[in-house]
Amino acid sequence: MADMAWPTRSIGYVVGQTSGDTLHGPRSIVLATTNGGDTWAQYYLSDTSLSIARVYFSSAQTGWAIGSTTSDQKFLAKSTDGGKTWTVLDHTSSLVYGPVPSSNPISFKDDQRGLILVQNASDNKLYVKYTYDGWAHSQMSTTLGDSSPLFAYWLNDSTWIVGTNGLQRTTDSGRTWTRVISDNPNGGHIATGAFRDSVGFVARDIYSTTFRSTDWGNTWTELRLADSVLPVRPPDDFGIHLLSMPTANRAYFLGQHPGDGAIEVMKVNVPIPATQHGGGGGVAMVPQGTKGLSLSEQNGEVNFTIEATAEQRSLEVLDLLGRSVVVVNVPSMATSLSIPGRAPPAGSYFARVGELTAKFVIW
Fold first, then answer.
1. Which of 56, 75, 98, 99 could form a disulfide with 106 if both were Cys (CB 3.0 to 4.6 A apart)?
2. Which residue, 127, 212, 135, 123, is CA-closest to 162?
3. 44 φ, ψ (degrees, to nearest 5)
4. How confident is the model at residue 246, as a pLDDT?
5. CA distance 363 to 350
6. How many whole angstroms separate alpha carbon 308 and alpha carbon 355?
């Protein structure tokens, strides 16, 4: 099997290639479950020239697949019926969708907004293609260099972070990128990472060095794990291979034991700094009928809903003294964004986007 995706706890998808039988030659297959893997349905791609390499489901029914054709073209396909049928959105010989060794080349915020790592086939320059309308239209970022792509994430604050030639981040809707952690010839490349809300955790491929962020990737703290966890060896032999963060303070990864080289699942407890405020108990918007800007609270986050505009904007949260508490970039055509409910202390605040303002309370 080539890849799998679990958009919910019970709904999952596995993609791969059959070896063929007396009636059919080798072809791509999608296995789908709606009951946590107890039973599986199988769907064959009608276009037998397609071979899926990676898959991502942005919701229970909407999926995205990349891979190669029998003529060695690269393709991007989309499903809106839970993997039963697929529509090819792009065939190309000039770009490679999700080039090796990327382990997580596709990331979507929802069914409309997503990004995919791509590489120019002629010069190996890396780019990000991104969309705001379910790939009815897409745009290409500036180049991220000619290093190997590793992983990509769409964060909840409408920024992205991608691991390639160090760790890079964008704050302008994916158009330009800034390196926030550089590669270290002695310490290794940023090989893998995972994010959970405002908390991020990434690791180098050699040495026992990891980094964590608790502010959506704005700043990073270096952590040194015990040498017994990650030995000093070449990345082809040892190191972290895959990383998952099911909660904000716990990460799991695949690594290799320094003694016998056995692959092991390991756990890291990520320390979250204690805050000196007591916000996050709840949030409520002061009823004032603000048109075009509203908010709600869910799962400890303050969710803002705004009217879409073509230009980029900033959402600023101010306290009653007019002091800026939180500033979040609002990409072009974005209609929603979130901040952690515990980011500001308990109290009364104003949210401002351009001429729009709304007052809310955190307790």
1. 56
2. 127
3. -100, 140
4. 65
5. 15
6. 14
Contacts with 90 (C-beta within 8 Å, 6 or more apart), sequence order = 75, 76, 97
CA distance readout (Å), 229 to 111, 259, 302: 38, 10, 37
Q: Of how many residues is the chain composed? A: 363
Q: Can you tell me the distance from the alpha carbon of 267 to that of 14, in angstroms, rounded to the nearest whole number? A: 25
Question: What are the structure tokens assigned to 350, written together?
Answer: 């104003």
Please state, in angstroms and rounded to a whole number, the distance separating the CA atoms of residues 79 and 34. 16
Q: Model confidence at 259, in pLDDT bands (50, 70, 90)?
A: low
C-alpha separations of 263 from 227, 234, 245, 260 in Å:
16, 15, 19, 9
Question: pTM of the full predicted structure?
Answer: 0.67
Report whether pLDDT(193) > 60. yes
Q: Are 124 and 101 in contact (CB under 8 A)?
A: no
What is the rounded CA–CA span in Å between residue 355 and residue 243? 42
According to DSSP, residue 207 is labeled: S
Write a three-state SS string for 13-66: EEEEECCCCCCCCCCEEEEEECCCCCCCEEEECCCCCEEEEEEEECCCCCEEEE
Identify the helix (H) or strand (E) that includes residue 76. strand 74-79
Residue with tokens 């964590």: 212
**Are 205 and 147 a contacting pair, CB within 8 Å?**
no
Strands (E), 209-285: 209-213, 221-224, 242-247, 250-256, 263-269, 283-285
- Residue in the structure block whose two tokens are 């007052």: 359
Percent of the chain with pLDDT over 90: 23
Return the closest-CA partner of residue 252 out of 270, 272, 228: 270
- C-alpha span between 12 and 94 (Å, rounded): 32
Among all chains, which residue has been given the structure tokens 């989309």? Answer: 78
CA gap 241, 104 in Å, rounded: 12
HSE, CB side, 13 Å, CA atoms: give it for residue 21. 2
Of the candidate ranges 1-15, 53-67, 164-178, the one whose mean pLDDT is the lowest: 164-178
For residue 51, the one-letter residue type is S
Task: Give me the chain's average pLDDT, please.
Answer: 78
